[in-house]
Structures are given as C-alpha cells and as structure tokens.
Amino acid sequence: MTATPFRPPTYPFDRLHPLATLASKHEGGMVDLSVGTPCDPPPDAVIAALGGSGAERGYPSGVGSTRLRAAALGWVERRFGVALEPEQLAFCIGTKEFVAGLPHWLRLRRPERDVVLYPEVAYPTYAMGALLAGARPVAVPVHQGRLALETVSEEDAERALCLWVNSPSNPTGALDDLAAAASWGRAREVPVLSDECYAEFTWQGPPATILSQGSESVLALHSISKRSNAAGLRCGFYVGDPELVHYLSELRRHAGFMVPGPIQLAGAVALEDDEHVIAQRERYRARLEKLRAVLVGLGIDAELPAGGFYLWVRLDGSAAPRVAERAMTGAPWHDEPGEAPAWGFTRALAEYAGTLVSPGDFYAEHAADHVRIAVVQPDERLALIGRRLGVAID
C-alpha cells in the first residue's frame, strides 16, 4: 500500500486575501481586525534591550537565561500567587511553534497514544499540531464556555497524548474550569496543557492559571506577544510539571530550539515590568467597548468577552445587508449562492466599510454563523470604521 503524502491545507488567513484587496480600495485604506497582531508599541526598555544585550556572539541558553527564567517565575508569582522552581520552566520560540510541535514530542514519549484533545471552537494550531504529528485531533464539545469532558469517550481518553485548554479562549473569550481539567487529566494520566496567553486580559474576576491546582501533569503556556505588544520577538514559555518540562526541554535542546540571546534579555525586561500591561489592559477594554458600539449601531447584538481582546459575534442572515444599508453607498447587497452568514458579513464589511474580520469557520466548522473581531487597531482607526458605517463612537 502506498502512503498518502501530507498536503498542508490553505493557511486560514490566506483565504482573506481577495477581501483584503477589496477593503484596501477605501480611502484611508483597510482596517485590519482579522489577526490578533498588537498595534501598540512595546516598552522603550524592551527595544533598548534588543540592541544592548551583548548576546549576539554566543549560543543562547536552550531553556532561557538565569535572568529570563527568574523574570518569568517572578511574574507567575506576582500575577497568580504561585511559587515555582527554575527547573519547572523553560522558554520556547513563541508559543505557536510549541503548540504545533508538542504532539510530536509527546508521541516520542508515549508512542502507544495518538489522540490530541482540544476545544471544539479553538485556535486552529491545536488540531494542526496533531495532524503534523500523525495523531488524531478530537474536538471536545464546549458548553457555556467550558469543556464538556464527560463527552470524551473512554477509548479516546485512554489514547490521549494530551488535553488542550485555552482560557481566556481564542476566539470566544470564555473562561474555562481549569481545576476540572486538571483533575480529569490526572485521573486518566493525560497531560493537560493550559494555553493562558490572554490571561492578562481577563475581564471577569482575577486572572487564573492551572498551576493553582498544583504542577503535577500540567503545563501552562505564556507569552510576551500579547501582554507586551512583542509578537515579533517570538518569546514564550511553558511551566509546570518538572519531569515534563525536563523531557521537553532536553528534546528541544537536541533539535536546536533556542530563543535568540538578545530576545532573551528583552523578554526579561518585559516580564519584569507590569505597568505597561496595566495601560494596555485599559486600551483593549476601551476598544472592545468602541467596537461593540459599532455593532450595536448595526443592530447586531454583541456581548463583551469574559477575557481576551476579541469580539465573538453571532450573526443572522440580515447582518450583511445591514452593513450595506448603514454604509449608505446606494449599492444593493447581493448574497453569494451558498455563502455562510460569517462570510457574507465579512465580505460586506470589506466592501462597504474597508474592514477585515475573521469568519468563524477558521475556528470550527460549525461556527459559520460567527465572526471574530480583534480590537488591535488604534482608536482613530476604529473611529474610521464608525464613520464609514454612519455610527458615531467616542
């Protein structure tokens, strides 16, 4: 039997290229709310550290420099009240490569297992990581924002390499029950991987971490990309179970996964400072309110998230025509045959408001009636959307 070669699917955001071209024709250009790319600058001290580390000549530490790990551990203790040891933490080249590669590393550890469990509405890299490892991605239903772990079959649980939890969730902003996830995984010897990259932007209650339940069989993932507006530096870390951290960090050292030295110093500077994150939280909260006001002006019920900086908006069939009507272009709205509500709305925003958002099917096949809107543009750009749609916002 001849094996079928793997062919990577189209990268989700590449599907938006035609609509980006359409949106860019507007005077003032496109307002891109599709990707969660920070627009605000990182702290000046972070930029200065990049050019003043003196770390360009030598090979960097594979797990992170002493200062970088101390900065991360200090932040975890300040933010969550959890004290950990240096051997419980290691750094990665941004959390995306870690998420995508982890099932492969875990299959080497437990070759008899081949299932990756992840939330049914989720960041697509959880499922892609499973596929890249030759494993089977299994979506776990989410009820009222929380994983319905009771729906996981015993067979899938017995074969599970890991369970992904994402809280606050990308794209929904929901907060999950991390204690329940940790208990479920320990009872079945399934490592629980808690993606907490949006924890700094928790709006309902204090930020939470799975590490509050102890470190046995769990890892938490964190990043400076969102908290410090430094997505381009690719600096994240995983922290928790010391045996699992040691196993993964040793494999990754052999494979040459090392955060560059200058970025290690910049990451330490970012994690040592909390003041810039407080200011960023205020910006995102205000922008969520502004974008929600635009949607309400279109007659669309949009709820503020419990966490994160995305609006996860459910649509009906009249949403796209209302965009055209509010834009007062005089051009009629024409539905594309078989077009899902999310794509119709996304197309309408691009055509009539010069704005790009993400259709819900990027995150789950059954979410074709949702869009994700990232509030990652300056206030003046958000106000431009309002003007294009005839909706005044402060």
Written description of the protein model:
By secondary structure, this protein is α/β, with parallel strands linked by helices. The chain has 2 domains: 12-41 and 276-389, Aspartate Aminotransferase, domain 1 (Alpha-Beta Complex), CATH 3.90.1150.10; 44-272, 3-Layer(aba) Sandwich (Aspartate Aminotransferase, domain 2), CATH 3.40.640. It has 14 helices and 14 strands. It has helices at residues 17-23, 44-51, 66-80, 95-109, 125-132, 154-158, 178-188, 224-227, 242-255, 261-272, 275-297, 319-327, 341-353, 379-389, and strands at 31-32, 89-92, 115-119, 136-140, 142-143, 146-147, 160-166, 192-195, 218-223, 236-240, 310-314, 355-356, 358-359, 370-374. A 7-stranded mixed sheet has the order 2-10-9-8-7-3-4, with helices on both faces. The longest helix is centred in the last third of the chain and has 23 residues, at 275-297. It starts with 16 loop residues before the first helix and ends in a 5-residue tail after the last helix.
